[in-house]
Specification:
Blueprint lengths: L1 H9 L3 H11 L7 H13 L1 H8 L12 H16 L5 H15 L4 H16 L1 H9 L1
Length: about 130
Amino acid sequence: MQALYQWIVARTPPADIIREFVADRELIKVDIEYFTELTRSIPLKFDELLGEINPVIDRQWAQVDPVEQAILLIGTYELRFCPHVPWRVVVNEAVELCKMFGAEDAHKYINGVLDKLARTARVAEISATSSA
């Protein structure tokens, strides 16, 4: 989330962010491969991800706080491109990130947006868990 926040706010190239995070920070219990995938792929797929997010948010993207933008981008990417991560885990992790770094009560907004996105991105998975 912090790497994407840096990309959003400072427009630092993803390769530079990855280099900085790996060199300057203690990445304890971090899956470097997954971190690298998210940090590289989300900016590359930004327009596609934003195309999915915009119809389910209640304001212009520019009016969404940059922390919440980063969290929504991660959650949307995971819902679309990481089927190995269960949809409930995606939403829960995003909510927890937002509780840690986002504005007060912003986690409720994140939960609502990602829940709507999951209902279209993970139809089969949600149907299977609903009927079980």
